[in-house]
Amino acid sequence: MFIKCLKINKTIIILSFIIIFIIVSSIFLFFSFANSDDNSEDKNYIKWVDFNVTSEAMKLTSKLDIESHNSNSEVKYNWIELLAYLAAQNGGNFDNFKKSNLDYLVSQLENGEKMSDLTSNMKFYDYYYEAYSAVLSGFIGNYSIEVENAENEKIMENRYGVKAFLPIAKNYSFSHYDDFGNSRSYGFKRVHLGNDLMGSIGTPIIAVESGIIEHLGWNQYGGWRIGIRSFDGKRYYYYAHLRKNHPYAEGLEEGMTVKAGDVIGYLGMTGYSTKENVNNINVPHLHFGMQLIFDESQIDSPNEIWIDVYQIIEFLKQNRSEVYQSNTETKDYSRKYDFIEENFEGGD
Ligand SMILES: [Zn+2]
To answer: Which CATH number applies to 163-341: 2.60.40.10, 2.70.70.10, 3.40.50.300, 3.30.420.40?
Structure first.
């Protein structure tokens, strides 16, 4: 009797444990599912971009955009929409880009068709629009720039057009080829995530777009380098291997804002060293890179998105910042023509 009672008690205890376990784990499972649902909603951002738009396609679409905004034409084109439409048609591969495809799209828009209707059945239009906006949205818009009038006086002129600059100052020569993805041997095995612009040591380096200095200082690979984040947070511009002893323009610090076209530093050959201020690069050049950021978790992770900027450099050759030696003692250079951008968040 005693043994039987003990047995029943044991069974009851074990059963209660099982029931409690089932209740606790279902509560846990319910909450973790609810949570992961929340997370997947939060984490619905672009994870990868291959930027294969050719400079030719950028030139043609930007021309349509700029000319339509500077004339009283009824249809205003948005070059990013035009490029996203073409990408949705060609799968993001512009190798076989045909101007006739763009002409046909333009004729439809001229005839009063709406972009939203034309793209409503395009599965990837929204993806390309968001991806290309992240790359290009700082490149065209309203700005004021200093120009010289007939009396050689400097006056500000309001314009709509390309407001991003080539990273090499005007009147300084450079050469480059599409070297994105080439293998690199210094350090660990890795690929080249930018474009090398070969030039002379001391060539003034120009901020492509306005933004906030996020990194300034020594980095084992990049040497003296500067990293600038666009105001919308989507683009991180990386300029590396700057000049030994005098890498940066006067007075620059992390957290400061710079304007598109400002001198930010000088071309050099520093890097490939854990020790600071060492020239370990064989050929003087600027390493220029652009990282896209759709979510802050993509920074400093294996999920970084660096795009091929070769075609962007080709496109930006049309807009270069002229400089002059503004300090003969320190031999620093400054931009010749001031620039004010609409919605500029800088405070200087
Ligand atoms: Zn490089």
So the answer is: 2.70.70.10
